[in-house]
Structures are given as structure tokens and as C-alpha cells.
Amino acid sequence: MKVSIFSTKSYDRQFFTAANAKYQHEMTFLESRLDHQTALLAKGAIAVCVFVNDEVDKKTIEALASQNVSLIALRSAGYNHVDVQAAKNMGIKLVRVPAYSPHAVAEHTVGLILTLNRKLHRAYNRVREGNFSLEGLLGFDLHGRTIGIIGSGRIGAVVAKIMTGFGCKVIAYDLYHNPQCEAISVRYVDMPQLLSQSDIISIHCPLTSETYHLVDKKAIAQMKPHVMLINTSRGALIDTNAVITALKSSQIGALGLDVYEQELELFFEDRSDRILQDDTFARLMTFPNVMITGHQAFFTEDAMQAIAEVTLANITQIEQGQICENEI
Ligand code: NAD
Fold it and tell me: pTM for the whole thing?
């Protein structure tokens, strides 16, 4: 099938080219982000392949439909950036990669926890400058601390398992209980209990209309003072301004982010020679107890191989009229 792959970087090209040896799709790699204007670049393609910051709204979907695109293949798990109803109305099928490597995201989450707790980001810079002072580097034992997981699906369950290995007490809030979590003695609690009992809170639920700004001023007020908050899920799950206020008062003691509400304008590009226009992001970066990575939690060899493989298999299944279990 002719596939236009939007928002491609060298690493997408590398992994998709390798995986395509088996599938033989006719792939065109486009560096542009998909929106209603760049949709024209898909001319002649039957399918487009998109990533998390492509703009798959109604206008874009209409532009794709007018060029006879009949399939949108997401190379991501989350699809909060896609107008699913508009695609259905236009007769365009949607497929995604629901689970490529929960370990990649979970391990990055734990990396943020360890870095923030033991101030490794600060220690790295200090030692390079010949500063061996320990002032300000005091951490705490993870052993015996309580970690609260919001959303105990694939990724949340792996975080729970790893943190159990550290000797943490793991509690979780989810709409459903995951037997994998119950098997390792994760205790399910309601949201107010999770907020008030956790020393570390890590978010692993999807962004939906119900979970938008799940962590807001009211939720933060219920948390333990100096709590560590980690979000590797989607930026808009937390109200960034409320979090900044809480960092200033030390109600939040440490913040680890791999996602950011306005990341569309920032992430995945080298902007080091440009003036940063986002004042909220700039403020976040002034805190010594904030660690931000640019949506890289998924970025392991294993995950990239799986993303390319599953995306191309999804496209083949739809092309051959088979049932695709990853159809949205
Ligand atoms: P999953 O579907 O396996 O698990 C999500 C869990 O959230 C489910 O158990 C679900 O019941 C729960 N949930 C849904 N609504 C909820 C609510 N209102 N309150 C509490 N729990 C709720 O998904 P996953 O594979 O574990 O991925 C979780 C999220 O991680 C994705 O939605 C995506 O946004 C994010 N993600 C980030 C990266 C990254 O690179 N940073 C990569 C992949 C996924």
C-alpha cells in the first residue's frame, strides 16, 4: 500500500525501512507535521502514518478524505489528538499500536523518580565543575515509601512491579482492577486516598475529557506536603499553572515530566538557537527540583522496532481486508 509517513525523523526512517523488508509497502517519508495544509503532501497515498503531535482534527481528516486517503495508521498508543468521529463519518479507518513496550515508558518513569530523589541531574553538573559539596543533594530511601499509581494499565502495572522491587508500598487508582497488580499486592484505593497517602504519585491513565486536568489545584491540596509528582502520560492530565504554584510553596517537592500541555510547539525539534516563547515552560525550568524530558519515554530500540512492525502489520491487515485487532 502507498503510505505517507508524517513527522519522520532519521530514527523513524531507520526502523520503518528495516521492518518493511517483510511487508513491502510503498513508503514516503515526510518531515512535515500533518495538519490540514500539509495533508496535501499525502497526494496519491492510500494511508497516512502519524505520530503524537500530528494534528488529526476534522479539517485535516476532510483534507485527507478529499484525496482518497482511506486509512490513518497511528504509530502511537494514545489517540487523544485524533477526531475519531470525524474519521468514522468520512469512512477513514484508524489503527494504532496499543502496546509496543510498556517497559520503555515504565523504566523512564523510574529514571525520573531516581534522578529527582537523589538529585543526579545536579550532582552530574557539580562534579564536572569540581564541586563535591553534598549540600542540597539529600534524598530519601524509596524502600518503605508509598507510591500512588493513577491508571494501572500496561505501563502503570510495570511501574508498580518495579517499585515493588524497591520495597515501596504501591497503591493504585483506576476505574478497573488489573489482576497483574493485585497479584503483586498493589492495593486499590479511591482518588482522595491515593492523593493523601502517596509520597510519590505517577500518572499512567489516558487523556480523555474526564481526565483533563486530573491534577488541578483541588487535587494538589489533598496531596502530602513535598510530594513527588511524575507525569509520563499526557501533558494536559495536569494543570501546569497549578503545579507551578504548588512548586513555589513546596507543596510539590519534586516534579518529573516527559510530557507537557503545550509540547506541540516545542518537542521533537532542536530549538536551542531560538528564543523560547513559552513563559510557563521557561518558569518550570527555573526550579532545581523539576526534571523535564521531551517525550522520550517510549524511545528505546525495542519499542521502535515494535512500533514499526505493528504499524506495518496493521496496514497490511487492512489492505487485505482482514480484521485488525488494533483498529480504533
Ligand atoms: P492502558 O490502556 O494499558 O492503561 C491505561 C489505564 O488507565 C487503564 O487501566 C484504564 O482503565 C485507566 N484509566 C482510564 N481512565 C481513567 C480514569 N479516569 N482514572 C483512572 N484510570 C483511568 O495504557 P498504557 O499503555 O498503560 O498507557 C498509558 C498512557 O501512557 C497512554 O494513554 C499514553 O498517554 C501514555 N504514553 C506515553 C508515552 C511516552 O512516551 N511518554 C508512550 C506511550 C504511552
Answer: 0.93
